[in-house]
Design goal:
By secondary structure, the chain is an alpha+beta fold. Helices cover 56% and strands 11% of the residues. The mean pLDDT is 95.
Length: 592
Amino acid sequence: MTAFRAPTREMMFTLQQVAGFSEMAKACGYEDASEDVVAAILEEAARFASSVIAPTNVIGDQTGVRLDPDLNVVTPAGFRDAYQQYAESGWASLQFDPEFGGQGLPFSLAIPVQEMWHAANMAWGLCPLLSQGAVEALSEKGSDQLKQLLLPKMISGQWTGTMNLTEPQSGSDLSGIRTQARPDGDVYRIKGQKIFITWGEHDMAENIIHLVLARLPDAPPGVKGISLFAVPKYLPDASGEPGERNDCQAVSLEHKLGIHASPTCVMSYGDNEGAIGYLVGEENRGLACMFTMMNNARLTVGLQGVSISERAYQQARDYTLERTQGTAPGEQGVSPIIKHPDVRRMLMIMKTLTEAARGLAYTGCVAVDYANAENLPDDIRARYKRRVDLLTPLVKGWCTEIAQEVTSLGIQCYGGMGFIEETGAAQHYRDARILPIYEGTNGIQALDLIGRKTVRDQGQAMAELIEDMRPFTGSLQSNCVLTAERQAKFDQAVAFLEDATRVVLERGNDDQFTGAVAFDYLMLSSTVTAGWLMLKAAIAAANDLTDQSTFAANKLTTTSFFIDHILPRCSSHLSAIRSGDDAIMALPEIEF
């Protein structure tokens, strides 16, 4: 496997010129997040990712994790040391409240940094990903006393966090949760079992704070009767240090297709007297509290799609530059296979999709900072809150779907050697496969987009997004970088999105229709939005008179390629939406 090198120039450009980070920082009061500071943070993160985290990737995949006889998870060689360096260097605290030890930087600045962690080693990066989501949930919903008890150690990285939703009989439908919580003075006693708990047990940090969904004895049925509890592995003592072991443990580990070095645990709570838990938020309002963490996780899972795509692209590019075979058109003698047109086609798809996904993910995360800025007027914040809500399923859904395509093409670029584990190309493909599944399958993301985010608000958020695309349709600004033919293709794609939204709003009360076309609507919306951001990037690069390198030319090339090769996919999605996808609607009549 080739070494990982974070594309810091591409990241900086996307953050600043596409997602609008500098404008956000000025508007939202992040005076310390200057361009120089951002550049320095990205360069240091790149060094850390490549020199400390990336070397653990192969050994982690090969050796995996194991559960010892005392039910402790043992992580692969180098994992604990890398995590300790991560915590000691302050990386865990970038975007969090200085009152509890955070650095108070924007959430969106932490996003390219996190992209590097996941590209270097996605299995390792899942530990800080879940911890940061837990911190956000506690920061927003925890009592002052609970924040003082847990947040300083979690923000410093000394303690990690998890999310406990799924149970053996209850997957994505949380209405069937059976884990029980019984009041016991100022605390609660938790009893039950959870499955698929990422980093539920490990040896990298001194304590783990589990956020657990459970039911109180008199709770109403369904999702309205779920509460959220913080359940530490070790109960904090009087000085706030890990004390007595709580009544919770990992009883087994799942053996998975990929992310072998990420312990996916079956967690048991209350095998004895009951695990002590602290209520987060209000009783019977646990799902709303957990969604704070889940929405963060959905954005960062989408970011993982960008990360693994970048890693697969780099590896395929480096291999095709070195591997020689055959004589490419116009060449003399044996050629590097990157000279062959079909290999270049695959690399262009990989590169273009990765750049587009990065633009989409970063833009969604900058919107989070706008939505959370208390100094902005309420109407501005509300608009950005609608934008975050709309883009979250796009980021999670589309960025993880394209990761399947990119990592598969990475293997194809290798030919037969890509199917051999020693080359490392297969690991990216295996690791990426979980991304469309966890934190809500992409089918659930599609239903969320078409139902909650479009039909429920009568298309307001989508109309606002299309309104922002309008200046790039048929404009002189766009035509300075696009041919007339490509401009027409982009204009048509925006019209497709508008037409699809009209159909969805007209038929939005038909659950069978929305269920049949939801995924096509997700992919159409995402592809058009990504195309708009690619065009925005090409114009910004072309207008940068200080940059006379090939960077601007590369941006125009990838944008043109996206319009020619990726944007036409929108036509089939629109066709399915217009027809109500009759083939799917007829499925009950099909005999399988």
